[in-house]
Amino acid sequence: MLSAPTARPAAQVALDAIDRRVLKHLQANARLTNVELAEQVGISSSPAWRRVRALEQSGVIMRYVTLIDPVAAGLPISVFINVSLEKQVGAALQRFEKAVRGRPEILECYLMTGDADYLLRVVVPDLQALERFILEFLSRVPGVGNIKSSFALKQVKYQTALPLPGQAEKPRPRKKARAGVDRSR
């Protein structure tokens, strides 16, 4: 199994229907054995293994991870933090990005358009930990000008599987109206 990305695609990789089925099943359960994967995709084991290796080598499959319930792991507080820098110059952006990469409580960081320069998703065990994170780390990163936090009250949807092209749900066929019955009301 991969522990870190082996390659990053320079451009979009052409995926056929079998590749998409392989990815769909691995996104749902990365612990499938090669035999189980081949059976679910509808191909034999050797081609399934070769396809997975090719997807890993091309960088489409970046790595394998275990998803952990944050509440069960003692990290019930999820916070979205908008960060604005004093100046949006290359050196300031690089300095900020380097600083946030080293913090394990930051699960995601995006360079944004709009009112803030960055959006962070942070998980912490309690409000005191959030206070320490903001006061002792985030506010001390050189160039940070403004910090605004929003607490997530409830996670409505969380999905890690990408909606791969060609796998969208097909619309259900509409029932035909009986002759003489107006169904537009």
Tell me what the structure shows.
With 185 residues, the chain is an alpha+beta fold. The chain has two domains: 1-67, Arc Repressor Mutant, subunit A (Orthogonal Bundle); 77-151, Lrp/AsnC effector binding domain/regulation of amino acid metabolism (RAM) domain (Alpha-Beta Plaits), CATH 3.30.70.920. The chain has five helices and four strands; from the N terminus they run H-H-H-E-H-E-E-H-E. Strands 2-3-1-4 form a four-stranded antiparallel sheet. A hairpin with a 6-residue loop joins strand 2 and strand 3. The longest helix is centred in the first third of the chain and has 13 residues, at 45-57. Residues 1-7 have low confidence and may be disordered.
The biggest beta sheet is recorded as: 4 strands, antiparallel
Which shape, going by the Cα principal axes? Answer: elongated
CATH superfamily of the largest domain: Lrp/AsnC effector binding domain/regulation of amino acid metabolism (RAM) domain
Number of domains: 2
Q: CATH top level of the largest domain?
A: Alpha Beta
